[in-house]
Amino acid sequence: MRLLRMVGVGSLMHLKMASRSPFEIATGLIVPIVQATMAVYLLRASEQPQNMIKAAVGAGLMGIWSQVLFGSGGAIQRQRWMGTLEMMIISPRPPALTVLPITIATGLQGTYTMAATLVWGWVLYGIVPSFAHPGLFLVAVVVCIVGLGMFGLLLASTFILMRNANAVCNTLEYPIWLLSGMLVPITVLPGWTEPVASILPTTWGARAVHEAATGGAVWPSVGWCLLISLMCFGFGALSMSYVERRARAAATLALA
Amino acid sequence: MSELAIEAVGLRRTYRSRTGWLRPKIRQTEAVKGVSFTVAKGELFGLLGPNGAGKTTTIKMLNTLLIPSAGTARIFGHDVVENTTEVRRRIGYVFGGDRGLYDRLSALDNLRYFAELYAVPAREQKARIGELLELVNLAGRERERVEGYSRGMRQRLHIARGLLHRPQVLFLDEPSIGVDPVAARDLRRTVADLAATGTTVLLTTHYMAEADELCDRIAVIAQGELKALGTPDELKHYADGRRVVEVEAYGIDDDVYGRIRRIAGVKETTLEAQGAVQLLTVQSASDVDVQGEVLAALDGVRLGRVAARRPTLEDAYVSIVSDDSPELVVAT
Q1: In chain A, pLDDT over 70 holds for what percent of residues?
Q2: Domain of A12?
Q3: What pTM did the predictor assign?
Q4: Containing domain of residue B188, as a range?
C-alpha cells in the first residue's frame, strides 16, 4: 500500500512538473498537429483514403512513443541536470520504483497526445474518429501505454548509466515507429525485421490499437502486449538495481 | 548498534574518464587516496579542504552515491556498499547550490514527494512537513514555486528535505555556499540545533569561521589525503610560532604578489578579493618581522587597513594544506 502511494504521489508530481514546462507544453501542442498532417498526407499519397482513421491512430501512437521515449530517457537526463537523480537514488526505495512514476507520468502525457492527434485529425482533415470497437479502443490504448511505459522503464535503466542518454533517445525514436508498425504495416518491411518486431511490446500495443480502430481480433494482441510488458517490467527492475550499482561505480549519477 | 556513527577505513576513489573515439584515451584521477577517520554518535564533524581536495567524493562514498575503489566505510555498523538500504534509511544528504530540487513545484510538493521517497509514514507526513517548514523558516511560503526562491530559501528547503525522515546522520556538503551572511548565520544555528538534539553531522565547508564555530572535530583534507585531524583549538596550533600581517589593498598584481612571496622569512601568503578590496595575508615565523618589507613591496599600491594579529584557524588551515605541511598528525 505504501509503495502504491509512493508511485501514485510520484506520478502526480512528475506530471505536474511536465505540465508546467513551457517546452513540454509547446511540444504537446505542436507535435500532434505535425504528426497528424504527416500521417494524413502519407496515406493520401498511397491512395487509401479508407484508411484515414488508421493514419490518425498511427500518428497518435507515434506521439505516445515519442512521449514515453523522451519522457523516460529525457526525464532521467533532466533529473541528472537538476541534481535530483542522486536524491532519488539515495532514497531507501528499490530503484525501479523510484523511476516508475516518471514512466507512468509520461504514459499519461502520451494519452493526451493520442487524444490531441485524433482531435486535430478531425478538426483539420475531417477524419471523424469512429472506431470499429470504441470500448476496446480505450482498453487497447491503455494497454499500449502500459506496454510502452514498461519498455520505457527498461530503457530508463540504461539512461541512468549513460550521461549522453539524449543521443540514445534520438537514435531509437524512428526505428521503433517503423519496427512496431505504428504507421506503416510491418509486412512491407524486410523479413529480418519481423522477429525483432515481434518481441517489442510496442508492436503488439500498436496492433491492438489499430485492430480496435479498424476492426480485427483485439484481445490476442492485448494479451501479448501485457505479457511482454510484464517481462519488460521484470527485466527493467532487475537491470535497474544492477545499473544503479554500476552507475555508483562509474560515477554517472551526477553531471561531473 | 555501533556507537560510531561513521567509520571510514582507507577510503580511495579513482575516476576514469575517456576521451576520443578512434583512439580513446583513458585518464585516471585519484580523487581520494586512503582516507580514514571515525565520527562518534552525535558529533559534529567538519571536513575542510580546498576545491578539488576530495571532500565531496568522500561524502559521496559515505552516503552510498559512489562505490569506493578501495577501503571500507560503515554507517552505524552498516557497510555502505553491501547494506545500502540500511545505510540510506539512516542518512540525510544536503548539498549547496541551486540544484537538487524540483523548481517548477512548490516547496510543499517537493517535500511531499521526497517524504514518500524517503518512506515517511503517510499519517506523519503533514505534521513533519509543517514542523520542518517552521524550523527552516519557510512557513507561509510553502505553496510558492521553488523557481521563485532566493538561494538562501532554496538552501533552507534542502535542509528540510534532508531531515524529513529524521536521519541519524546528516551529510552537509558546503550548505552555506553562495548564501548571504544572515542566511548563513541562520543555517549555522539550524545545524548547531540539530547536533544538540543528537543528530550526527558531517559538514564540509570552505569557511573556517563556520567550522570553528560549529565543529567538535575537524579533518583537513588536501590532494585527496587527510592532512590533519583534531578539535579546532588543536588545529590552531599548526599556526603556532607564526605571526600574521593582514593588509587591505587595491590593485595588487601578479608581480607585486610574487615579490611578497619571495621575501625572506615569509612562510605563506594568500590574496583574497572581497569586492573591490584585496585582502593580503602574510604569515612568517614569529621571530621574523616582515611587515616593513611587505609594505615596501606594496609601494605604489593603494592601501587600506594594515594589521598584525594572532594566527586563526584559517591561518592554521593554510599552513596545513600548503605543500610543506607535515604528515598527518592526529590531535588527541
Answers
A1: 92
A2: 2-250
A3: 0.80
A4: 42-62+77-236
- ipTM of the complex as predicted: 0.80
Residue B224 and residue B264 in one domain: no
Claim to verify: residue B282 and residue B152 sit in the same structural domain: no
Q: Report pLDDT for B323.
A: 53
Nearest C-alpha in B relative to A245: B67
Alpha-carbon distance B258 to nearest alpha carbon in chain A (angstroms): 34
Where residue B289 sits, what CATH number does that domain have? 3.30.70.260
pLDDT at B2: 58
Query: By the CB < 8 Å criterion, does B248 face chain A?
Result: no
Residue B226 and residue B285 in one domain: no
The domain that holds B206 is classified in CATH as 3.40.50.300
Q: Does residue B258 sit in the same domain as residue B282?
A: yes
Which of A 37-96 lie inside 8 A of B, CB atoms? 81-84, 86-93
Give domain status of residue A255, yes or no. no
Given pLDDT bands bounded at 50, 70 and 90, which one contains residue A25?
confident
Q: Are residues B214 and B257 in the same domain?
A: no
DSSP per residue, chain A: -HHHHHHHHHHHHHHHHHHT-HHHHHHHHHHHHHHHHHHHHHHHHTT-GGGHHHHHHHHHHHHHHHHHHIIIIIHHHHHHHHTHHHHHHTSSS-HHHHHHHHHHHHHHHHHHHHHHHHHHHHHHH------SSHHHHHHHHHHHHHHHHHHHHHHHHHHHH-TTHHHHHHHHHHHHHHHTTSSS-GGGS-TTHHHHHHT-HHHHHHHHHHHHHH-S-HHHHHHHHHHHHHHHHHHHHHHHHHHHHHHHHHT-SS--
